[in-house]
Amino acid sequence: MILLAEFESPKVEYATISPLLIVVGAAILGVLVEAFVPRAWRYPVQVGVAALGLLIALADTVRVGLALDTLDAGLLARGSLAVENSMVVDGPTVFLWGTLLVMSLISVLLFAERRLEGGLTSFAGQAAALPGTDAEREASTRGIEHTEVFPLLLFAVTGMLLFPASNDLLLMFVALEVLSLPLYLLCGLARRRRLLSQEAAMKYFLLGAFSSAFFLYGVALIYGFAGSFELADIDAAVSASSGANAYLLGGIGLMAVGLLFKVGAAPFHAWTPDVYQGAPTAVTAFMAACTKIAAFGALMRVFYVAFGGASWDWRPLMWVVAILTMVVGSVIAITQTDVKRMLAYSSIAHAGFVLVGFAGVYAGTGDVVGVTSVSSVLFYLAAYGFSTIGAFAIITLVRDAGGETTALSRWAGLGREAPVLAGTFAFFLLAFAGIPLTSGFIGKWAVFAAAWAGGAWPLVVVAVVMSAVAAFFYVRVIVAMFFSDPVDIKPAVAVPSILTTGVITVTALATVALGVVPGPVLDLAQQAGAFVR
Amino acid sequence: MNGYIPILVLGAIAFAFAVFSVAISGLTGPKRYNRARLDSYECGIEPTPQPVGGGRFPVKYFITAMLFIVFDIEIIFLFPYAVAFDSLGLFGMVEMMLFILAIFVVYAYVWRRGGLEWD
Amino acid sequence: MNTEHYLTLSALLFTIGATGVLVRRNAIVVFMSVELMLNATNLAFVSFSRAHGQLDGQVAAFFVMVVAAAEVVVGLAIIVAIFRSRRSASVDDASLLKY
After folding, report:
1. Is A66 left (phi over 0), alpha (psi -120 to 50) or beta?
2. Which residues of A touch C99 (CB under 8 A)?
3. What is the pTM of this model?
């Protein structure tokens, strides 16, 4: 029993967790800007605050990464616990922080695009105005826009940075909510097709709240089992327990539901297509890249560090989920007639491929450090993040009078209309399919190699077959763009400002670079090493 | 049992004070009856009439309710801090100030953007 | 009364909440069911806290309450926005996105 006299001031390692503090500081500054800066100035100031905050946090992450202590040279574990053991800043954390910050910086540029909607962002001018009313039109003509999206994005990034860095299940739950709540709101803020957008927000919210309740009950059961929220204590309790314990198994199962929901794995994937399709495309790009990165980071940390001793209990479960996810994602994607929705199913399939690497549970052998489960998943997430943001950025450009046009039939003949754009999109699709010389190939190779080394060869076989199935629907889109004639009206390609052009260029270059010279980033992922416990 | 005596004494004092206040105001207060005195809120706020057809309230009630929840729940962190503030020392003080500062930022946002205006 | 009783009650409440989410049609009621699940979890936290003789579980209950309040605000905002544009809060009516 903790008595009052035992309370002591906790020690907070501000220098180690400073990237997180910088992002949350920028978010709070954004709220102040929203309160006190005149309307005309808000947009540039908000974009500046968000971009600058993320840039400084990125530079700071590099500093933190260089200053990590080496704990165990054999397994390449480096880093330290922070804030009274409730956070851990180690190699994987720093790699994930870096990836997340780069991806969110790119997303900020996509959020800030104003050329496509005639000088306004692609977010609802006034979310409170009813769709299709005079109030909405008036807000639009007066140029009112919600610049709150930038602080909301920063708050979501805060949660994402905290999620894989938490060493304490309670903190992990709080991080889960901090990353989810802003995303629920962002999903409902589209300027066009607002009913769809609001519906996506409601579905995401209700299912997200449902799944986080499961996660939380899992945390409660684990707390009952181990008597602590700290991952290392739970690991000790798992190792000490003999035989099956109902609290432990129930807790693992329920927490898996919550985490697998966030990564969009089947059978908890039902929200993904609806939300990806209904949300504003910039938000979809941000979610598809960053939520996945953060959620897989947390999934690995919980299951490897806390439940590593019980891995024979949860491995079969993860195998089934991985196979189901790959099959559902790849097979249902074939029947899709909407490009955005097809990419959503593709993201489910990719979650399955990442799960293959995760379920292999391969930690490397002693002195020879090859591709481990952790490093392969880290690399895959970075590679997939770039291509997916790029692909969604291109979707924002194919438009008609009603806004973006995402029906696959309307994309027919795009290759003749805009060869460069269609070529870039085709390149991203090939990267998703895992064609050599793209980042997708190296990513797939890495996770499959790790899973194979970990003895999960049946998973690898299924994954290779499903990659072939997935290649089919990517190629179908390419055929539609280049080798078929437009049905009725030619697709129109809007000319974006430097922001979206820059995003597409950077992500395409990253996809090439990670495919042709993956060495540096792969090395970085391997240098990240093992989790510190 | 001894530990409960102060609580009983406090309860007795509170009860006595309540009875005393009600009795003394009835005995010494001026007795003027008019329409305002018979209103629900004597301080002058008109009770909002029930919505026509019953049931639905304007959305502005909802905004007030949301703001109430957000600002009400902060007490949950202040309360444990109040119990242990002396052992947390300067560190706890600074952290709590930061927390309250963050709440004030939100308050400033709500105030500047018209969340506190009724109409 | 030992811990088991409280845990059984908490599991029952959690199940009632989960069932409510699955069978009810009104978004507000679905959301109330989620809140019931969170509060069932609080009961589990507090009883485990008592069983282990620590305060950690009670601290967790505080945090869960705060998170639940934040979730209420965000959730009601979304549901009210939907209700105002469609005049209905039924989760069955929200079916523009499918397949």
Report:
1. alpha
2. 335
3. 0.91
